[in-house]
Amino acid sequence: MILPARIAAVDLAPEIARLKRELNAVILAHYYQEGEIQDVADVIGDSLQLAREAARSQADVIVFCGVHFMAETAKILSPQKLVLLPDLAAGCSLSESAPADAFKRFVDAHPGHVVVTYVNSSAAVKALSDYCCTSSNAVAVVNSIPRETPIIFAPDRFLGDYVARKTGRELVLWQGSCEVHELFSGGEISRLKQEHPGSITLVHPECPAAVRALGDVVGSTKALLDAVRTGPEDGTFIVVTEPGIIHQMQKVRPRAIFIPAPAEIRGSEQGSCTSCNTCPHMRRNTLLKLYQCMDARAPEIRLPADIIARARLPIERMLALG
Ligand code: 13P
Ligand code: SF4
Asked: Does any domain span residue 2?
């Protein structure tokens, strides 16, 4: 929708604050959102923090600035609330890599396996799972399952490989991947490390093993932010995840230098792409769309009641782990 020039000209932040009061809404934003969205949010966090917030919020309306599966998780945990997503087309390549019907056939082909599903999956896939996990707690979730129990881990094969190495367990992996994290270039990161001796390399576990091996810290977006918070005030950090998080990193360490790691163009012999490291789905949300969705009370997340009931259990099991 194109706003009339009259409305487009106003400063959106006070309008969003007014709508928030009118709706009794809470705005939750993932670290990968644009800085101007993070700045009007009530809570900024990783997937786990935002799921916890959605579960405990007293607001009538949850405005979720993130991608579709995250807003679905909020709806599953608070089905009585209106859950708004500024752009319903904000998807996720990991979630899309596991269509529910194909995933059901995969699960059926592995009888006796416990199914651990990364939260980056559709509600219908969660409904086929025993446990959910996020990148913050995937190792803890797998460790909570008796060692002799075989496990399917889906949909991210790189996070699954990370968890398998950390827990020393064999996992049956669904072969999905994140289109952003799988493209980080090991060669470029090695070059940056050489160029900046003493720098600290922060890597998200959705990256391939060769890239993770270059990390001084490997962890969820919150873990990477925490590493900056406890790191040197004037340090240099190479950030191997979606660069939206640098907005918060810069706030906690204003004197530090943050270098967003570049991604590689697939099939390209040389050269790298600095903007391929942004998540095109996360970036579909804009401040204007946030304002418009609050104004229109739409688009909202709707899910069938039976999916909500079945998908809730694996999420609650994850949250109960603390
Ligand atoms: P976090 O849970 O670490 O925030 O990761 C979410 C995500 O989509 C990473 O690509
Ligand atoms: Fe999905 Fe990757 Fe975007 Fe995260 S960065 S939302 S995993 S596509």
From this structure: no
